[in-house]
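Two entries, shown back to back:
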Amino acid sequence: MIRSVLWDSSAILALLDADDADHARAVAVARDIASERRPSFITNYVEAETHALLVRKLGRLIARQWLLTGGLPILRALPAEEQRAREILAQHTDKDWTLCDAVSFALLDARRIARAFTFDHHFRQYGRIQVLGLGG
């Protein structure tokens, strides 16, 4: 498995919003990732989702600043990964996963990456990913 870590929008929001319930945990996990020198990235889907989330929660100025200076490399989902995401959603009709979640799952599987920094319980539901952020 590759040592890289996918950062999800929930982790980015928690890190940037000092009032977020998960802020302290996000800071600690981000420090751990940095100290272990784990390569980190977001997907193009996470980029769009995070920008929308930041506009809604922290305002357009912070969202724009993050978008233009976010600093995390962006891995673009390949057409096969997007198709696999649709298959994941079709197979799991009992879950309320978003297309962004499913693209993350498909990309992580296809590229043999086992870690995600997130506070989204959907990643734990998927079951194939080591979730950094969520306790327990």
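entry 2 starts here
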Amino acid sequence: MPELILIILAAYLVGALPCGVILTRLSGAGDIRSSGSGNIGATNVYRVAGRKLGVLTLVCDALKGVLPVLLAAQWGHLPEPQVALVALAVFLGHCYPIYLGFKGGKGVATALGIFIVLSPLTVACLVAIFIALVAIWRYISLGSICAAAAAPLLIFWFERSTALVGATFFIAAIVIWRHRENISRLIGGTENRFRV
């Protein structure tokens, strides 16, 4: 049990690394939290600091999800319920990072990394949903919200794991909750459209 607590804590601290803030500061673009929407995620970095930094932020945030969960599942050989706890710790680290006063991102990229390890088939379906919705309506937030809503059903369909379904419901609920302002703007017709 003490080892599991240390693993979960380490996963949280990895997830809490604010990649968007670090990358924009290193590039000389300033503090991303004071620009655009103020969010530390890839979409805001893309809009404020450009495509390269936006993509790099996406990759780094996803890797934060991949590495701890992969190590727990493949190297640590932890049972599935414990792997689910590690996944939740990484995700919560990104959304509520101790390094930034618990004010983090919306969790989409880190959740993507988590599910790449837990259920690649689910990721394939979620990416298809996301791309289709963004291609049609040009709203990143809409694609993210709908993909999050579909995730628990897909995890249940492909994995049939109570632990993973429970963790996925929790992750999906937080992703949607953290998009509540976007939902209001979508309803009001004031949400920013994505432009390549």
